Amino acid sequence: MQDGVIDFLVKILQRESITPNECGIFDLVKNELDDFKSIYLDKNGVKNIFLYKDFSKNNKPKFHLCFGGHVDVVPSGNGWDYHPFGGVIDNGIIYSRGVADMKGGIASFIYAIKNIKDFSGILSILLTSDEEGDGIYGTKIMLEHLKNINLLPDFALVAEPTSNKTLGDVVKIGRRGSINGKLKIQGKQGHVAYPNKFINPIDLITPILPRLSNVLLDNGDDNFLASRLVITNISAGIGVVNVTPNDLEIMFNVRNNPLTTQDTLKKYLDSVFNNLPYSLELKQSSYPFITDSKILIESIRYAIKDITGICCSLDTGGGTSDARYFSNFGIDVIEFGLLNESIHAINENAKVDEILKLRDIFKVFIEQMENSIE
Length: 374
Ligand SMILES: [Zn+2]
Hints:
The chain is of the alpha+beta class. It has nine helices and 20 strands.
């Protein structure tokens, strides 16, 4: 059934909302949910909106369920077959920057919510214009504000494109964290003809490199892949053939599960470097999290099965997302949305039929949450 969701989606696709711009999309959303209360929060050029409605009788909400998302998109790049901000529909497929990541998800949950009549809690929407950027003044500051006014949700679903091959095959129930590292080995620069008089840091690193490069730091568990140290850059030397380098620098990243922390990583590196003169800088840009809410997981599982017939698998792979901020505030959060095949790519697209299905999945999900909570 086409109830206006596609027309609305096309309208927001035509707004060129490259991070951190929202280009009036928030007002369009507000128009769709005109009986919802709204909170706008702008900081350092980033815009955020929170819309909420208490559906309960006597204002005694049983629980608060929030849908999260970002209206910002990455730039289109060249080489598109369609206008990247045209919202063009060709043969049942919409081609536009952001249709999968993640305006399609946003349109779907707004129209799911519009169709909800009986509900005994609070339904809300949290949208930001900075997820593809640094995200410092996005979802996080809105949640801080909600905490201050005692309006934090109990549960959240972020409609990022999590589906892999078919709509409904993957739900994310957590994410790995990310640790960036820089390590430096000190040597002593000298003439290449007298290598024994100096200390070449390349000679120091060579025997231990196999214990650094692409090494697994733990075995993972039921929910997470093993944490892996991935080297992204090695530099040494001054770019000539007759001088040995003074020092050597390695940059790396670890997508870590809860079994590996900055501390365990440092201990491991200390053991590898043993007595070698090395220094280390670690920076954790996000922490791993996992949702253990059966109600959330079972409700989305039921809804996906009901609409698509597919049994979803639960996953924690991929990069980071704003779901981590919900988790930081103690909110149970999962992520589910459209296919991620074409996100950030040229000719990003989504099927009209899948957007209608996603809307229906979200509607059943809300009803199922309502049924599951006493
Ligand atoms: Zn996204």
